[in-house]
Amino acid sequence: HNNLTHLYLSCNPINDFCSVSLNFLSNCSSLEFLSLAECPVVQLPAVDDLSNVPTCLHSLNVSTTKINSWTEVEKLRKFPGLNDLRIQGCPFLDEYTAHEKRMMLIARLPNVKVLNGGDRIKTTEREDAERSFIRHFLDTPESIRPSRFDELVAVHGLLAPLVNIDLSPDMNIKVSIYHKDECREESISVMQSVKQFKQLLQGYFNVAPANMRLWYYDQEMTKIAGPEEMKFANKELYTYNVIDGDYFVVDEKAQLRVLTGSPRANSMVFGSLSPGNSSKKSSFGTSPTSPCANSRNPRIRRKSSDSSAPPNPRTRRKSSGRTSPTPQGRKASSPSVKTPVARNLFGNSNVRNPVDQHYGEFFHSKVFREDNKNC
Questions:
Q1: Which pLDDT value is given to residue 156?
Q2: Could you give the C-alpha distances from 323 to 192, 311, 335, 342, in angstroms and in order?
Q3: Are residues 104 and 73 in contact, defined by beta-carbon separation less than 8 angstroms?
Q4: DSSP secondary-structure letter at 94?
Q5: 30 near 3, Cβ under 8 Å?
Q6: Burial track 334-355 (b if 16+ CB lie within 10 A, e otherwise)
Q7: Quick one: what percent of the chain has pLDDT higher than 70?
Q8: Which residues contact 33 (CB under 8 A, 6 or more apart)?
């Protein structure tokens, strides 16, 4: 079998690797790849029997076998040409995390260049693994330390343990919460939103979130910029950089007076003050043309002509300038002489801009016509 390069013995009831190496591998001098995956192999060949392993064997797969100790794994260091190893699913590796498994295998097997089908092991990764290996066994008694420990100490020295620094922020903060004369010391989670925090405060002070104003007082920034109102419901509390000792103030929004009954009963004022007469106010429901108007505001008729012109129902104004016959003794109005007529909405010719004087009243009477009918 000198031409055999790849051999797959996976899923076979092979218990002893030594029998394979003595009876089969010794006759395959060109073998490069061997797979014993999912075989119940427990032990690897002893160092004395490694002479039977072909020197061309550079790739080995022993995944999902019954290898149960690091002592058996360290025998792989003596395989003459091994540089690609697959070893997963073995019982003794279950107690380690994925990172720890890779670190321990790289540190123990310096001859392996590719592990579990990944990228080629870099120099920096190997150095980090070896240094981590030293720190891992610092507190282990010397009698049970692996032999690889002394070899790595000779290369990197006896390293001091690393300091474990936790930079993760605190999730629960102790703060003070004030509402009127009440003060509460609470431990709150900064991972909640402002909306959720207000719902929590509702249970403390019986204030509805919709009627609540919440202020955040930073111990340092409050001295410079004052408190900050928490207006945004979806903003998380940790974005405010809340720390121990900060406090919150709960305030209630101003209550709006609810008017009951008719508007007239509550003496509501409609419109604004007259620009020409600021001392006068228009009462709701009254207008110059309303029969219910106050006696101090007499009823004013709208006229189409000047009040000085004599009433004559037979005389009509023509667009052509012609005048109808007039009774004897009366002068007909000349078409060339135009009588100045002060037209306005209220019929008062003495007011230059009557809308200014009765600002708001006329428009109210036009919009609220039902008031005139009720009166």
A1: 92
A2: 87, 15, 8, 21
A3: no
A4: T
A5: yes
A6: eeeeeeeeeebebbbbeeeebb
A7: 65
A8: 5, 6, 7, 57, 58, 59, 60, 61
pTM (2 d.p.): 0.49
Cα(219)–Cα(175) distance, integer angstroms: 11
State both tokens at 197: 């925090």
**Residue that is written with structure tokens 């974005």 in the block:** 239
In order, the DSSP letters of 136-178 are HTTTS-GGGS-HHHHHHHHHH--PPPPP----PPPSEEEEEEE
- Which pLDDT tens digit goes with each residue over 305-316? 444 445 555 555
Structural contact between residues 237 and 192, judged by C-beta atoms closer than 8 angstroms: yes
Name which of 33, 83, 89, 94 is nearest 66 in CA terms: 89
* Owner of token pair 């107690």: 95
- Which residues have CB under 8 Å from 290's CB, separation 6+? 365, 371, 372, 375
In the predicted model, is pLDDT for residue 26 greater than 90? no
